[in-house]
Design goal:
By secondary structure, the chain is of the alpha/beta class. The chain has 16 helices and 23 strands.
């Protein structure tokens, strides 16, 4: 049995805990690895190492830190196939989807390569007579990231390249369900020339999470996961005076207007709802059919959902892979059962899918509901599986109100040919990321990612300029050099003279 350990101070680290977790291949249902689950002692020891590494790393010129990122980028590209296969084997998503997620992570590394330019401060000469003022951004210290199972490469790479490039050291606590990718990224950083202790991986469960939140030497915590856990992270990190960004759950809507290109909307919805088996915080799990387009939309969707090619991630013909665990599979099926009980019309039922040769895999087919009402739990709650709900709205206003009144505000899109409707929607919708004829509106690395309402706890989004602001603190310096003749002391608030 393969044993996955921690990565601390540039090498494999067993730690002091004997507790282990099981890592499965979702396509076969077989356990393929064990992962050591760390404890408070392991985390605290790692913090001491990261703290010491920070002292010298933070003093490196930004250009030197950038060169490590350049080398890291090169090594990711060189080893991309191996990393993608790790993602497929432990998460289950299809190969090309895994490749796309790695690419999105790599783009943040590319952005971090420009850190010398990004970290430049501002300077104002003569804010007062012979007085100059300037601002600089300095690193925080030891930072930590707690990441989800659905993107074992991409989400960690939204965090640590920015943190490290800014001069911090970093401790990553990946999902215990698919931890191998994090370990491999740590090895590549080491190979890229990153000093020992600057980047560390500690596997674990809630004990390690709580140890991160309660360790006084950790200055900032980044988190991606469900909303209840995000709220817990935010409250406890803030209570312990840490900087925190905690990205939570989502219920992303796709508003389909009567004037849209229906084929474009349907194809967009198929990828957004069923890609990665719906295990995305940006998955579009609600289609809002406006006016009289509902019947055509459901008819076109149902044909494509029924034809959806479900299979193992390494099969080039597969469009959708398995879910992450048997427990999660049963949870998603339970939501489908609930939807039927609540009175929604189950147009396509994928609950009983069985694949020859993969009978023990965590597979289900795509499910499609019609006539879902806003009072139903399948509408209100994040399912995180291949389930798409169609809600009918009589007009644009009602569709917009549905989106704005939902507790989540991560992503939303509208399909329309009407520029006025699109502009009004993008301006007035209460959601952090908006797509116009774009099904998954994830910003590029040089912009920032984050939702509104209960999809984000904290003030700053991930990567891009917001990421730099999160992983640095602002210092403003005001300076005057005396002419040589000492003036008398001043006891009043300085003002412009």
């Amino acid at each position: 049995m393969n044993l996955i350990q921690h990565f601390v101070n540039g090498k494999t680290y067993k730690g002091s805990s004997s507790k282990k977790g099981k890592v499965y291949n979702p396509a076969t249902g077989d356990q393929e690895s064990e992962v050591i689950l760390g404890n408070k002692e392991d985390l605290n020891k790692t913090v001491e190492i990261a703290k010491k590494a920070y002292e010298s790393w933070s003093l490196k010129p930004p250009l030197q830190r950038a060169r490590v990122m350049f080398k890291f980028k090169e090594l990711i590209e060189k080893n991309s196939d191996d990393i993608i296969k790790l993602i497929v084997s432990e998460h289950g998503k299809v190969y090309e989807d895994a490749r796309g997620s790695l690419t999105r992570g790599l783009e943040v590394v590319e952005f971090a390569c420009g850190i010398p330019q990004i970290l430049k401060g501002e300077f104002t000469e003569n804010v007062g007579s012979e007085v100059d003022s300037w601002s600089i951004r300095q690193p925080l210290g030891v930072c930590a990231g707690i990441t989800p199972f659905n993107f074992p490469a991409m989400v960690p790479m939204w965090m640590f390249p920015m943190a490290i490039a800014c001069g911090n050291s970093f401790i990553l606590k990946p999902s215990e369900k698919d931890p191998s990718c994090a370990f491999r990224l740590a090895e590549l950083l080491n190979e890229a020339g990153l000093p020992e202790g600057v980047f560390n991986v500690i596997n674990g469960d809630k004990e390690v999470v709580d140890a991160i939140l309660n360790n006084n030497d950790i200055q900032a915590v980044s988190f991606v996961g469900s909303t209840p856990v995000a709220k817990y992270i935010y409250e406890n990190a803030a209570k312990n005076e840490k900087r925190v960004q905690a990205l939570g759950g989502a219920k992303n809507h796709c508003v389909v207007m009567p004037d849209c290109d229906l084929d474009q909307a349907v194809n967009g919805l198929m990828g957004a709802a069923y890609g990665s088996a719906g295990e995305r915080c940006m998955a579009q799990s609600v289609a809002v059919a406006v006016g009289d387009i509902g019947d055509k939309l459901v008819d076109n969707l149902s044909k494509k959902v029924e034809a959806l090619k479900v299979g193992p991630g390494m099969d080039k013909n597969s469009e959708m892979g398995p879910l992450i665990t048997k427990e999660h599979l049963e949870k998603v099926k339970g939501y489908v059962d609930l939807g039927v009980k609540e009175g929604a019309n189950l147009v396509v039922d994928g609950r009983n899918l069985k694949l020859q040769g993969y009978e023990n895999g965590f597979f289900m087919g795509g499910c499609l509901f019609d006539n879902v009402k806003k009072e139903m739990r399948i509408y209100k709650e994040e399912i995180f599986g291949p389930v798409l709900s169609v809600v009918r709205a009589k007009d644009f206003h009602e569709a917009s109100e549905l989106v704005n009144n939902h507790e989540y505000g991560n992503g939303v899109s509208i399909f329309t040919r009407d520029g006025d409707a699109a502009r009004s929607f993008s301006s007035k919708i209460k959601v952090g990321m908006v797509g116009i004829n774009i099904p998954i509106p994830v910003p590029m690395a040089f912009h920032s990612f984050g939702g509104w309402k209960r999809s984000l706890f904290g003030d700053q989004h991930m990567h891009g300029p917001e990421g730099v602001r999160f992983y640095t603190k602002l210092k403003t310096i005001t300076s005057r050099w005396p002419s040589g003749i000492r003036s008398n002391p001043e006891f009043v608030m300085p003002t412009m003279k």
